[in-house]
Amino acid sequence: MTRQATAPDKTRHMPYMTLDDLAEILRRRRALIISIIGFGLCVTAMLSLFVAPVYRAEETLAIAPPRVMAELALADRVVPLAADLPRLRDRLLAHDVLDQIATAYELEDVPDLSGAVDMRWDTAAPGAGGIVIRVDLPDPLQAQLVAQELSHRLIGLSAEERIVGAERTLAYLTGEHRALRTAISGLNVPPARQGDPALRDDLARMRTDLAELTQRIDMAGDLHDLEQRRQLERFEVVEPAQLPDTPIRDSRPLLALAGGVIGAIVAVAVALLAEWRHPALRTAARLQRLTGHAPLAVVPRAAGSDRDAPRVPVWITRIGQAFRRRWPFLI
Amino acid sequence: MSNDGYGDMIDDRMGRLDRDLPRLGNRGMFGRAGKTARARGHLRLVSRNDSPVQIRTAPEMQAGRDPWHALRQAGLGPESMFRADSPAGADTAVEAAFDMLRTKLVKILRTNGWNRVAVAAPTRGCGATFSAVSLAMSLAGIPGTRTVLMDMNLRRPGVADALDMTAAGTMRAFLTGATEMGDHMVRAGDALALGLTRGAANDAGDVLNSEVCATVFNDMIDRLSPDVALCDLPPVLENDDLSAFLPHVDGVILVADADRTTADHIARCEEQLFGQTQVLGVVLNQVARSGPAPFFA
Asked: Where does the record place a coiled coil (chain B) (predicted)?
């Protein structure tokens, strides 16, 4: 049972940890672990104050067919509205437009409004598909208003462009007509050539062209008139943006959870580090394993020993004392 | 230096051990061979500075009475946690642990014919004094035995406080021969003699290294003839007091604190004690009762 004191074998003291050891370490350092987890939760809770949830407002528009059925024949002469969509989108989401909206709706705090706005053709939209305008903002009312504003601007921009296009077509055709008519009226045929069949053919062709131009001018005028009266293809709101009541993305619980998880990882790491720095014997089995000594006796702590109470880390105690000194009326 | 008396003591003690061990009979745990301690008249010693030191002999001893019975009786103080009627109440698990330690220790001592045991911890605060006192109380519970508990931690004595007793003098004075054993030692009950001390001695290493100390200590053992002499000693790793005293003990019990002592502490203690004495074992103190494994596992 006795042993002559011998030079110790260093390899004998190589510590390793069993699950029981780990459980005991966690139990013993529970105050430290709980403190660090609590600290992590507090930090993330404070951070979450600066992180707002995100609300999404969606407004869906569809391309409505022409209202005047008799004029449908004209449709093949007009560029389809869907073909204009990419260009309209680019114009609508241009920086200057978004800046105007940001100023109008007091969205200066939103760092990247272009990233918060999306407009795309969605085949899943009601009907045969439509344009969905999505706005993701921290404030639900602002999200709704901006979606409505973008929708309104899209409709207006579309109508304006189509009217302008019709006007330009009409103006162009009118100019062509005028030029052709001037050319015909200014045509001086010498008496010697009045019987020339080639000249007679040219004159007939010009008169035909003039008649055709006149017909196209009439058609362009009709188109212009129809566009102004919004009787042709146009955007219509099929699902107006509603005030969103639940956020689509609220990172606050996730942030708090991350704080807890990271806090727990850090706490366990700190506990293990503390244990690694001071690998106390703890139990008889560990004593025997680490030193080769079977204990002569194992004396338990006296009942009610203050060592059994969770020990609050000194830094937390000091923070508490400072808090109590600074705001004594709170405690 | 005169070695006559000291040589007699060693021979006497070894002879008694050798003679008594096989015959345990009904003469106590270690078969103490009656009153073999002799009262000596004037034992001349040499102190550290080579000045002669005289160990004075009490009248009772001169009269041939057993010095054990001549010791002054003193009870445990009212605040002592070792009193049977202590307000803190007895912790049966702790008592059982020390009873177990007592049994193992007695077996070791009996097997090897030893009776001088040092109790020390690797570092301060491991409970060496508590263990020494508890073990002494447990040993004293064996009828017909004699246990001596000496507070040899001269730098930070703690036995008197643990027992809530007031020491008559300093251990330094006793170990340097300035105080006679009968004036210094007290008896707490029939089975336990105490060598307490008052105040700290900064020259503890010098005192414990001195030959006077050795002579006085051996003389005390011879005269009181205890079955077990426990010496509460300072931490092994803090100073050389224990090493200085090691030649006077048969073995060392290391007291390790479950929460403070590391395997490295034990290894360094082994290095310190290497070649000087036996490590009788390690007492693991302050082991948690809760947790995945029971405290005794």
From this structure: none
How far apart CA B295 and CA B287 sit, in angstroms, is: 6
Residue ranges per structural domain of chain A: 18-53+264-298, 55-239
Question: By residue range, what is the domain housing residue B37?
Answer: 4-285
Collapse the DSSP code of A319 into the 3-class scheme (helix H, G, I; strand E, B; otherwise coil) and give the result.
Answer: helix
pLDDT attached to residue B219: 92
Tens-digit pLDDT profile for residues B160-171: 999 989 888 899
If you write DSSP's letter for every residue of A93-130 in order, what string do you get? T-HHHHHHHHHHTT-TT-S-HHHHEEEEEETTSSTT-E
**Within the 1-30 window of chain A, which residues sit less than 8 Å (CB to CB) from chain B?**
1-8, 10, 13, 15, 20, 23-24, 27-28
**B296 and chain A in contact, CB less than 8 A:** yes
For tokens 């203690």, what's the residue? B269
| pTM exceeds 0.80 | no
Does B224 map to a domain? yes
Q: What is the CATH number of the domain that holds B55?
A: 3.40.50.300
**pLDDT tens, B252-291?**
999 999 888 998 999 999 898 888 888 999 999 988 876 5
| Facing residue for A291 by CB, picked from B108, B134, B266 | B266
The answer to whether residue B59 is domain-embedded is: yes
**For A249, which DSSP code?**
B
Tokens matching residue A213 = 């131009």
Residues in chain A: 331
- Mark which residues 170-189 of A lie under 8 Å from B by CB: none
A-chain CB neighbours of B288 within 8 Å are 24, 28, 282, 300-301, 307-308
Tell me the pLDDT tens digit for each residue of B73-129: 988 887 777 777 666 556 788 889 999 999 999 999 999 999 999 999 999 999 999
Count of structural domains, chain B:
1
Please report the sign of the dihedral spanned by the C-alpha atoms of residue B241, residue B247, residue B253, residue B259.
positive
Question: How many other C-beta atoms lie within 10 A of the C-beta of residue A311?
Answer: 14
Q: Does a structural domain hold residue B291?
A: no
List the structure tokens of B221: 């053992």
Q: What angle do CA B296, A299, B110 make, to 5 degrees?
A: 95
Residue B71 domain-assigned?
A: yes
Give the model confidence (pLDDT) of A279-319 as tens digits: 888 888 888 888 887 899 999 887 666 665 556 667 777 77
Q: Residue B216 above 60 pLDDT?
A: yes
